[in-house]
């Protein structure tokens, strides 16, 4: 009976993959196949995990999801798809990457990957504590729980194969700089920006080593983007002309250099793994500085409401003046890009890096 159940599970997995492979999926080197995609991080890649925990960091209401499949607000912090979905699609796995905490998730969806990300989280454990969301440590615990479920369903050997061949994406760190360090006093009493970014890089390396220990071998890590140029940071730290916050951008660049140095060291230490640096800072800056090149008109305000400060619960069905043309905007709310911007950025960053995972 167990063998029959395993066959049924694998057939279901293959069916799901074939059903969701998109025309935008990229050719993989040496005819490789990817069984699943697993994502860890913050609101950029959270497809709705925060819907199921007690936190104010939520977006499971309109106008979020306005351009998602069926116009449903799923908990994705955008008007449509988010990078976790786009990565799964590019690797030819499926079109939507579900939230692990979704109580309605089914085994075939689990087998092809999920996102453990939680909006408001960070490399710094304090970042998640402040917002009452799932920390990176919590997300690793969820991954361990995931593996136990799969062990029970299809056996440890089959699960180990999925884990070793899958793609892992980490996208986190913006909230550490923009919120925990810049907007609260707690860490500034302990660290200057040099030592705080050292601390972030240490936590990042520790997380990646634990992910390796659990079986991850194809691991891509996004850097912190031009966080000082998102609308909320312009409003809070850009002065009367709402310019980009130089201090936040400089902190992001400082951290990114340390993050990628740690990843190079891990690549040498764990030669059977692939640690892939996914650099967004410069491509995103180019989008902001040259919007017409990518088909955008508005870079300084989000589509929702005034576009200056609304995010999460402040971006809601009663937000006045929400735009009707989000494809003209780089940002959906004051912190998160639109689906179109995510599409453009993911192509700029990921397409040329696919081969590095294999």
Automatic annotation (TrEMBL):
<dbReference type="InterPro" id="IPR050592">
    <property type="entry name" value="GDSL_lipolytic_enzyme"/>
</dbReference>
<dbReference type="InterPro" id="IPR001087">
    <property type="entry name" value="GDSL"/>
</dbReference>
<keyword id="KW-0378">Hydrolase</keyword>
<protein>
    <submittedName>
        <fullName>GDSL-like lipase/acylhydrolase</fullName>
        <ecNumber>3.1.1.3</ecNumber>
    </submittedName>
</protein>
<keyword id="KW-0732">Signal</keyword>
<dbReference type="GO" id="GO:0004806">
    <property type="term" value="F:triacylglycerol lipase activity"/>
</dbReference>
<dbReference type="InterPro" id="IPR036514">
    <property type="entry name" value="SGNH_hydro_sf"/>
</dbReference>
<dbReference type="InterPro" id="IPR035669">
    <property type="entry name" value="SGNH_plant_lipase-like"/>
</dbReference>
<comment type="similarity">
    <text>Belongs to the 'GDSL' lipolytic enzyme family.</text>
</comment>
<feature type="signal peptide">
    <location>
        <begin position="1"/>
        <end position="23"/>
    </location>
</feature>
<dbReference type="Pfam" id="PF00657">
    <property type="entry name" value="Lipase_GDSL"/>
</dbReference>
<dbReference type="GO" id="GO:0005576">
    <property type="term" value="C:extracellular region"/>
</dbReference>
């Amino acid at each position: 009976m167990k063998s029959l159940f395993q066959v049924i599970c694998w057939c279901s997995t293959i069916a799901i993959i074939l059903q969701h492979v998109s025309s935008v999926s990229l050719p993989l080197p040496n005819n490789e196949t990817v069984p699943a995609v697993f994502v860890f991080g913050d609101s950029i890649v959270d497809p709705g995990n925060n819907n199921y925990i007690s936190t104010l960091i939520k977006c499971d209401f309109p106008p979020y999801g306005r351009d998602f499949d069926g116009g449903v607000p799923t908990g994705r912090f955008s008007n449509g798809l988010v990078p976790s979905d786009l990565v799964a699609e590019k690797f030819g796995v499926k079109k939507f990457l579900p939230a692990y905490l979704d109580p309605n998730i089914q085994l075939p969806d689990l087998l092809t990957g999920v996102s453990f990300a939680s909006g408001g989280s960070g490399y710094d454990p304090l970042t998640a504590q402040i917002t009452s969301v799932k920390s990176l440590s919590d997300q690793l615990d969820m991954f361990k729980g995931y593996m136990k479920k799969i062990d029970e369903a299809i056996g440890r050997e089959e699960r180990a194969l999925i884990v070793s061949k899958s793609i892992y994406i980490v996208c986190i760190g913006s909230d550490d700089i923009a919120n925990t360090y810049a907007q609260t006093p707690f860490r500034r009493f302990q660290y200057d920006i040099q030592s705080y970014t050292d601390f972030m890089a240490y936590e990042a390396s520790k997380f990646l080593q634990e992910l390796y220990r659990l079986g991850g071998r194809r691991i891509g890590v996004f850097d912190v983007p031009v966080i000082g140029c998102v609308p909320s940071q312009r409003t809070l730290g850009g002065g009367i002309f709402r310019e980009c916050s130089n201090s936040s951008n400089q902190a992001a660049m400082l951290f990114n250099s340390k993050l990628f140095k740690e990843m190079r060291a891990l690549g040498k230490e764990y030669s059977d793994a692939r640690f892939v640096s996914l650099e967004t800072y410069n491509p995103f800056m180019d989008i902001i500085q040259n919007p017409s090149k990518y088909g955008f008109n508005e870079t300084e305000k989000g589509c929702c409401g005034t576009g200056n400060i609304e995010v999460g619960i402040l971006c809601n069905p009663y937000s006045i003046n929400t735009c009707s043309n989000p494809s003209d905007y780089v940002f959906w709310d004051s912190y998160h890009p639109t689906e179109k911007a995510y599409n453009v950025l993911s192509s700029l960053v990921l397409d040329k890096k696919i081969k590095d995972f294999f």
